[in-house]
Amino acid sequence: MFSFLKKGLEKTIGSIVSSKPKDKKITKDVLEELLLEADVPFEIVEEIIYYLPPSNNVDRSDLSRVMQTYFLYDSKKTEAKPFVQMIIGVNGAGKTTSIAKLANLYKKDGKTVILGASDTFRAGAVEQLKAWATRLNVPIVATAQGHDPAAVAFDTISSAIAKGYDHAIIDTAGRLQNQKNLANELEKIVRISGKAMDSAPHQKILVLDGTQGNAGVAQAKAFHDIVSIDGVIITKLDGTSKGGALFGIARELELPILFVGVGEGMEDLVKFDPSEFVKTICDAIYLD
């Protein structure tokens, strides 16, 4: 796990290491510069420094303790079968690929999975998810472009119940003509999912493009306002030096980061481990 996360944070680590003054202790001024370089939001950098002991030199254990407090949010637990996840996010964030990687992760764990192609708005979205379903050898419920996405979600969950699947993963549109249309569609999918199975979807997951850094927070808040997100997947972490933005995302949304994408391969979606994330950042800061 650690090697996967470290691989995903290589550019962030490089950014910190290259900005670190040679032969200097980690003072609060140096720490501020390094955290900002990694795209930790300014107000969070100021908070981290505020909660450190008064000494100007920063002890690693103190820094680690303070950083850990930004990742205390727990994911919703349920024993529901099927466990229904609704995947949300703008086009281009890596939503469809994340669904495929998530399905692959469940299959490796010996679980059965069915996909629901409820992004009937974007041209090619249904075909793209079908292609992944074929590659992964998992069933999919799909219809033609423009059909009712809530009906697809209902049919996916109903099929999962009838056939005893462990997981149902439902794709959704990332953009409609305007925000109100998108809000109405997502709210309807949630409502109709609940008719197919009580309390479904059990988890509404937002996919965020890690290369956007802190710019993704406003986007995340907009989706959160619409359907009350339960957790986040950060994609393309390996392609950015802005890994510090995860502090801002977790803090501003008060949500758990569930998974991170650390590469393009099917295996490159890993569960987010806050302690390993903080350790990796601290390793870079205190590298001799």
Automatic annotation (TrEMBL):
PROSITE patterns cross-referenced by the UniProt entry? SRP54
Molecular function as annotated in GO: GTP binding; GTPase activity; signal recognition particle binding
User: Where would I find the SRP54-type proteins GTP-binding domain in this sequence?
Assistant: 256-269
Task: Give EC number(s), comma-separated.
Answer: 3.6.5.4
Give the UniProt keywords, A-Z: Cell cycle, Cell division, Cell membrane, Cytoplasm, GTP-binding, Hydrolase, Membrane, Nucleotide-binding, Receptor
GO aspect biological process, one term: SRP-dependent cotranslational protein targeting to membrane
Q: What is its main location?
A: membrane
Q: Which family does it belong to?
A: Belongs to the GTP-binding SRP family. FtsY subfamily.
What name appears for this protein in its UniProt entry? Signal recognition particle receptor FtsY
Gene symbol here is ftsY
